[in-house]
Write a structure and sequence with these properties.
This protein is α+β, with helices and mostly antiparallel strands. The chain has a four-stranded mixed sheet. A hairpin with a 2-residue loop joins strand 6 and strand 7. The radius of gyration is 23 Å and the shape is globular. It binds fe (ii) ion.
Length: 411
């Protein structure tokens, strides 16, 4: 079969569909960066956060490294120095610049990063348009990972710039017209009777490798809250001395509270005795009915203990979400679970550098389920496993409670 014939074998509509998907994701990244000046895009407010310019360049490096270099003979890279600057953590992809020092890189400037993106965009679109059908399945596989990867960074762009702006005493707004999503108000708990359920990804749709293999778990009996914990409930915890009473806290959590001087969720500001919250729209009064966000695992766990409840396991969360029992499972706040981030039974990371994507982080972190207000539309799933270290709270992280108190009276 000739190359031309191989190209023919791949329907044009499929190429167009992928080019459109690629453009849509790349556009969304630029849309999120658009309100930010070149100065805004350089700042790195802490080692966990990255500059906006870095996100724009790193997501581009990802496509260049994992899609263009292996699949485009004689590919002309934009700048060979960028591999060092914009590799994040892929040891197999070569040496890289230190993460905590990303904010010290003023060159390339934001304009050059834009040119880098345009260079790679054009090459990717050429590859999609011209790839032979024999090479296409692997190209499509990496392309889909790259698009999902960029969507993850789109979320980080908002949380990282929010954290950066929170350091500014004038509290600048990312978007003065931004409004928080409306939360459901359905109170109460739904009961999950004891039973064996299958969790993990079970369809042909895209998922990250950490969402499988699907497997059976024993869940329940447990009651799980329909609603997310609210700011008003969190204020009650604070007013009851929640941050000052070590009996509510895990030992590591209490040490963190002491070291960090935490008295409230992240991005809360004590304004002459009244708490306000720094949001994407700037400093706003606390809305007691809104779900709490920017709490760490340690805080979520302490709140649950203070409430006489627990955090759900990720299996409990998934079973309840699949059954449609959870309000605001998606779109407001990632929800901490009490499950440590571990491989599912039978999990094997793929070969090569992309095997580093998730698998090597499966230690010392906790799983969050759902999605947040910063998650791009269509990015998440009922099986999606987000993960962060227990003290992290710069993401839009909240919680819902689970109740095991009647466990023994149910029998
Ligand atoms: Fe990345």
């Amino acid at each position: 079969m000739t190359t031309a014939a191989l190209k023919e074998a791949l329907p044009k509509s499929e190429r167009e569909r992928w080019i459109e998907a690629f453009r849509q994701v790349r556009r969304e990244t630029e849309r999120r960066a658009a309100p930010l000046s070149a100065e805004d895009q350089v700042i790195q407010s802490m080692p966990d956060a990255s500059p906006i310019k870095w996100h724009r360049a790193h997501t581009t490096w990802f496509f260049e490294t994992f899609l263009l270099q292996p699949n485009v003979p004689r590919y002309q890279g934009f700048d060979e120095r960028f591999a060092f600057l914009f590799n994040s953590y892929y040891v197999a992809a070569g040496p890289r610049h230190a993460r905590p020092k990303r904010g010290l890189i003023t060159r390339p400037d934001a304009g050059e990063v834009g040119a880098y993106r345009a260079h790679v965009d054009a090459a990717i679109e050429r590859l999609i348009g011209e790839a032979g059908s024999a090479a296409w399945p692997e190209i499509a596989r990496i392309l889909e990972i790259g698009l999902n990867h960029e969507e993850q960074h789109q979320e980080l762009m908002l949380t990282d710039i929010l954290h950066a702006f929170a350091q500014n005493p004038t509290f600048p707004a990312f978007d003065a017209s931004w409004q928080p999503p409306q939360a459901a108000t359905q109170a109460g708990y739904v009961e999950l009777p004891e039973g064996i359920h299958t969790i993990g990804h079970q369809t042909d749709d895209y998922c990250f490798d950490n969402e499988g293999p699907s497997h059976r778990v024993l869940v329940g009996p447990v009651r799980i809250a329909r609603a997310l914990v609210t700011n008003g409930e969190w204020l009650a915890f604070m007013n009851d001395g929640g941050y000052a009473n070590p009996t509510h806290w895990l030992s590591d959590g209490w040490a963190t509270v002491q070291n960090e001087g935490w008295q409230a969720p992240g991005h809360w500001q004590d304004c002459d005795g009244a708490w306000k919250q720094f949001t994407l729209a700037g400093l706003r009064p606390i809305d007691p009915a809104a779900p709490v966000t920017h709490v760490s695992y340690y805080e979520a766990d302490a709140f649950a203990r203070w409430s006489g409840k627990h955090l759900p396991t990720e299996a409990e969360w998934e079973v309840a979400a699949r059954a449609g029992h959870l309000d605001d499972a998606f779109g407001i706040a990632w929800q901490w679970t009490r499950s440590s981030y571990s491989p599912y039974p039978g999990f094997v990371a793929c070969d090569g550098a992309l095997g580093e994507y998730n698998g090597k982080f499966m230690i010392n972190q906790m799983v969050l389920r759902g999605s947040s207000l910063a998650t791009p539309d269509g990015h998440t799933r009922v099986t999606y496993r987000n993960f962060f270290y227990p003290p992290a709270r710069w993401q839009f992280t909240g919680l819902r409670l689970a109740d095991y108190a009647e466990r023994f009276s149910l029998t």
